[in-house]
Structure formats: C-alpha cells, structure tokens
C-alpha cells in the first residue's frame, strides 16, 4: 500500500480507521511455513485474539491456517468464517467447565490448562481427546504482561505437576492427543525457546497417543527500521532437526503446531488518524489527533512503540512532536518523536497496527470504535463499518423515574 492508497481510503471512509494488507499476511504465513518445510506435518493455527474480524479469519484460512481460540465466542467466529471444527483449537484460561463442554460439543480440539478442569472434564467426557497445556517455567518474551511461562504465571499446568496429570489421566481413562506450551510474546532468544521445547519433549514422553505437539508462538516482529526480530529461518532449522528426531524416537510422525497471531498480522496493519490541533506549550509541541487509547491502547498499556509517519507531508522537514489523543486523561501515543512537519488536518499512519489493536478497542468516553478495511489485490474492501450513536445505545435500557 502506498501513501496515496492510504489517503484515498481516508477520503472514502474517513478517520480514524484500521487498514490491513492481505499480501503482507500471506507473505508472513508463507515465511513461517517455509521455515518448517522439512517437517512432514505442520499446522499453523492463527491466534484469533490478535485480530478477530471474520474477513481476516476467512483470508488466513484460505492460506491454509487453522484457528487458535481462547473463548467460545472466538470458536463461533472461526466457524462463521468457514473454518472446519477440526481445524480449530480452543485454549481458554480460567473459564467454567460449562463453556469448555459447549466448545467440545462444537467439535473443536480442547486444550486444558488446569488440574481441576482436567479431572472434571475427563470424568464426564473420557472419550473426548484432550490436549494439555503445560507451563515449562521458562520465561520468554518481552514485557512481563506478555510473558506467560514464568513460575508465577496463571497459564498452564506446572511441569512439576506431571505426576498429578498422569494420575488424573489414568483414573479417568481419558485420551491425551496433544501437548502444548506458550512461553510469551516478543521472543528474541531462540535458545531460550528451544530450552523450553526440550522440557515439552520430555513431558510428551508420558503420553502414548499423541497426535501433535504445540509450541505456541510469540515470535517478535520489527517495530521500526533495523529493529530486532525473531530469526524464524534459524529457529525453523534448529527446531525441525530436534522435532524430527523426537518423532523418530517416539515411533510416530506427529504434527508440529504453532499459534502465531502478531507474527501473521501485526506488520499488515496501519492505523490512520487525522491531526485536529497542533498545540505549542512552553516545552512541547503536541499533535492532537482524532483518536485515543480507546482505539489503540498498546502504547499506554505496554509502552509499545508504533512508528508514526505523516503521510500527508512525508518529505517535510522533521520536527519533534508528542502525539496525543482526545481521551479525557493521559492519552499518549508517542513522546518527543521525530516526524515530518505536522499541520492541522494531516493524516498520520501508525505502523504495526494489525495485532492487539482493534481487538482491544473500547467505547471509553462514549467514542465510537473505528471502521476496518482490508486491502486485497490493490483494492480497498470495507470489512467493518464505523460505529454510530445507535450502536452505542442499542443495548442500554432506560427506566422510568
């Protein structure tokens, strides 16, 4: 997508707006697939929570992706997108047994991450194959909010509780057809991930009817030019060798599974906003835009840095700006950032806006959530309409005083 393409989308659908490049998603999917081309059975399950628009799910499924879901609602979204139940894995955390049973009734792969539910589900549904999510107690990933493999994490069954897992499996006569881990997001150190994988291989030896091993995801993508990212090719080469050796020793060709979210969609996304006001204070120049953390919360929540371009004036002289939103509290996208000269009315483009951006949007300050556009084969396709006041109040009930 060129700057002119993005500007034309704003002219047609207004701002703020999310735009996703289908070709970038396809390139990332092929890159990950190629990295594991020497494994006979590979399954890439897209993490729906990253970007859950049904059109995006349908597109990724057309590339060959299955779906990784964390709620019954995401399961239903995937089914509505045309994904067969057998290509969907359901990995919730802390949900009720009733929700897990509803997902099982839909025919998707169940992944359980606590002993209590494992025993209850196994007792009631011993014939339903189950995957077990273990916590390897290896901390991978960046921000502590997105690193989920550490000792105090709420995710997964501790690897040290393997005797308890085995006791439950033996007592209920349930079938364990998969084993899974997820250590965290923004993984840079491949060796740490491979170390965690060795722990998963050891755990896998306890089960004789496995069909797949799921290594999670968390691959880091670059957020600016020259930024560090996970070396997928090197990782693929090293894990492929180890996985194929495990399958040989196990006596069966297992499926190697991943659940990438950010890796597939982050770089495909742009978030476009309009500058309402350029405000000079005693020490700062603020570019105040027609959006806020109600639409893109990651900078405020995680301290994430999204590259910001002034696509209305890309060749202008660079100046320092703090880009802030219109929410009525501290609402900062970027502090003291070098950007081509910004004028009121200019359109700014935020990069890496495909993952965990729209899906975390809200109606805070009673603002509407923005529209979404899919850029596919050099054409813009509206895949979500901008909300209206009617959307804001449709579920509210007014009672008589």
UniProtKB/TrEMBL annotation:
Q: Which InterPro entries match?
A: DAP_deCOOHase_LysA (IPR002986), De-COase2_C (IPR022643), De-COase2_N (IPR022644), De-COase2_pyr-phos_BS (IPR022653)
Pathway assignment: Amino-acid biosynthesis; L-lysine biosynthesis via DAP pathway; L-lysine from DL-2,6-diaminopimelate: step 1/1
Q: What is its EC number?
A: 4.1.1.20
PTM-bearing positions, type N6-(pyridoxal phosphate)lysine: 49
Matches recorded under CDD domains: PLPDE_III_DapDC (cd06828)
**Domain (Orn/DAP/Arg decarboxylase 2 N-terminal) ranges:** 24-266
Q: Name one Pfam family in it.
A: Orn_Arg_deC_N
Asked if ATP-binding is a keyword of the record, the answer is no
Which residues take part in binding pyridoxal 5'-phosphate? 218, 356
Question: One GO molecular function term?
Answer: pyridoxal phosphate binding
Q: Which residues form a coiled coil?
A: none
Q: Which GO terms describe its biological process?
A: lysine biosynthetic process via diaminopimelate
| Protein purpose | Specifically catalyzes the decarboxylation of meso-diaminopimelate (meso-DAP) to L-lysine.
Which NCBIfam families is this protein grouped with?
lysA
Q: Which family does it belong to?
A: Belongs to the Orn/Lys/Arg decarboxylase class-II family. LysA subfamily.
Q: What is this protein called?
A: Diaminopimelate decarboxylase
Cite the source lineage.
Bacteria, Pseudomonadati, Bacteroidota, Flavobacteriia, Flavobacteriales
Question: Which gene is this protein's source?
Answer: lysA
């Amino acid at each position: 997508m060129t700057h002119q393409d993005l500007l034309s989308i704003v002219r047609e659908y207004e701002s703020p707006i999310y735009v996703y490049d289908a070709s970038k998603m396809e390139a990332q999917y092929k890159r990950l697939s190629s990295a594991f081309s020497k494994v006979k059975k590979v399954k890439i399950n897209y993490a729906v929570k990253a970007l859950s628009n049904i059109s995006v799910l349908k597109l990724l499924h057309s590339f060959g992706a299955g779906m990784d879901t964390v709620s019954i609602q995401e399961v239903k979204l995937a089914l509505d997108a045309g994904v067969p139940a057998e290509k969907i894995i359901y990995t919730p955390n802390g949900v009720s047994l009733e929700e897990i049973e509803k997902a099982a009734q839909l025919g998707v792969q169940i992944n359980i991450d606590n002993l209590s539910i494992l025993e209850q589900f196994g007792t009631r549904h011993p014939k339903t194959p189950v995957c077990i999510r273990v916590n390897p107690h290896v901390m991978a990933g960046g921000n502590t909010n997105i690193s989920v493999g550490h000792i105090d994490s709420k995710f997964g069954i501790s690897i040290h509780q393997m005797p308890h897992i085995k006791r439950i499996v033996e007592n209920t006569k349930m079938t364990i057809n998969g084993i899974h881990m997820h250590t965290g997001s923004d993984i840079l150190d491949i060796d740490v991930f491979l170390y965690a994988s060795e722990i998963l291989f050891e755990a896998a030896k306890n089960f004789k009817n496995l069909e797949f091993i799921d290594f999670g995801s968390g691959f880091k993508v670059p957020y600016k030019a020259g930024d560090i990212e996970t070396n997928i090719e090197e990782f693929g080469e090293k894990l492929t060798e180890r996985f194929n050796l495990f399958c040989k020793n196990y006596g069966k060709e297992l499926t190697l599974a991943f659940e990438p979210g950010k890796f597939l969609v982050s770089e495909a996304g742009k978030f476009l906003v309009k500058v309402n006001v350029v405000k000079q204070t005693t020490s700062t120049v603020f570019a105040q835009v027609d959006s806020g953390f109600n639409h893109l919360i990651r900078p405020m929540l995680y301290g994430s840095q999204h590259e910001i371009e002034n696509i209305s004036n890309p060749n202008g002289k660079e100046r320092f700006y703090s880009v802030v939103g219109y929410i009525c509290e501290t609402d900062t996208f970027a502090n003291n950032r070098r950007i081509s000269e910004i004028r009121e009315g200019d359109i700014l483009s935020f990069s890496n806006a495909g993952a965990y951006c729209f899906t975390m949007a809200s109606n805070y300050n009673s603002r509407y959530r923005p529209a979404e556009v899919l850029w596919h084969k050099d054409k813009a396709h509206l895949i979500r309409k901008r909300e209206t006041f009617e959307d804001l109040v449709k579920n509210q009930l007014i009672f008589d005083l």
